[in-house]
Amino acid sequence: MSPITMYQSTSTFTDSSFSPSAKNDISKYRTLVPAVTREDVHYLNASFQPVMNLRVRAAIDNFLDQAVGTPDPKSGWQSIAQEAQGSLASYLNVPKDSLTFTRDTTEGLNLFQRSIPFQPGSNVVLLEGEHPNHVYGWLGLIEQGLEVRRIDTKDETYADANTFVPFVDENTIAIGLSSIMFHNGQMNNVQDICARFRPQGVHVLVDMTQHVGVSPINLTEWDVSAAAFGCHKGLGCPSGLGALYINPSVLSSLKKTPPITGAGSISNIPSNLIADSNVQYHSSTQRYSHLNISLIGAVSLNESLGLLCDEIGMKIIEAHLRALGRELALALTPLGVRIVGSKSADERAPHLYVLALLHPDWATHFRAEGIYYPTIAVEQGYPLDSITMWPM
User: Fold this and answer.
1) Strands laid side by side in the 226-230 sheet
2) In this predicted structure, what is the pLDDT of residue 134?
3) What is the pTM of this model?
4) How far is CA 55 from its chain centroid?
5) Domain ranges within the chain, ordered by starting residue
6) What's the average model confidence in pLDDT over 288-303?
7) Angle at alpha carbon of residue 229, lines to 5 and 284, rounded to 5°
8) Which CATH code is given to the segment(s) 59-307?
9) Is the pLDDT of residue 368 over 90?
10) Region Disordered: what ranges (predicted)?
11) Residues of 357-392 as b/e, b for ≥16 C-beta within 10 angstroms?
């Protein structure tokens, strides 16, 4: 089954079924994002970080007002953080205690990577184009005898279980990949990979940073071992807050002691706060928790989830983004500009489109027209430019 189940696998992303419609029209929310209502600005850089909306801005303003004008605001912020954790768990369809907040994607990935027991000679399998934050977490374990296998996927636009079959063997402890690749927008079939390899005892660790906030996600259905992500992209929060999900069924197979241990990891903290040598860790993913998280980030996340999940709806957001992508592709065709990657809707992200912009004058043209775009591709001479739609 595809990671996105609301469309048939035979649909191309330019199929008429993805046309704009009244059902996916969210234009009334554009006023919440002043930066994109300016006539002189075309914002196509949301893969770096979407512009903030006024709902999140108001939540931050309220946080700051409380910080300077209220003697004891922290307990209220902590309560909102718990609410945000519950809303996030509901969005991902997982138990609340299977999620914990982290600083960012890197911390979440590393917490899981360093919790897997392995022997020298064990290996992990990654895609060559995987995000450096994910790859370096595994490379940091080479000194302990871990082999990092990387699949050359330069000519591929999609990964499923068959992609990994030739590289997984009896010494493989994990597969690491992004559900949506940051550099080309391919959407990998995580559920298929988990169904094939998890029964063999191979963990599947997923980076979902490019995925959260742009479509429905069902982690229970995917059956991943663990997933990590930041909340600063599709969820529209300030940098500094991420989350880690660990499947409750795999916790018993991990190292008992978390890689980072603090009071947030402990289930039996004495009431006098004098640390007891009789250490008992939480039996859930909360063993990876910190007591001090980015509360301003959690307050922002709570507001963002209310807007995206409850008020608009993730299915509508995804449909809107796919409609934008279709319109982009159809408009580019007469210009001879190609969108790279698979033409199948269930093999590409709803919001991230990579254009084959080979001429160096594109960068000059974009700057002159007030178009904000990812500079790494065009200005450094790479042949591709990532265009990411912002749902507002």
Assistant:
1) 99-102, 242-246, 226-230, 203-207, 172-178, 123-127, 147-151
2) 97
3) 0.91
4) 21
5) 16-52+313-388, 59-307
6) 98
7) 95
8) 3.40.640.10
9) no
10) 1-22
11) beeeebbeebeeeeebbbeebbbeeeebbbbbbbbb
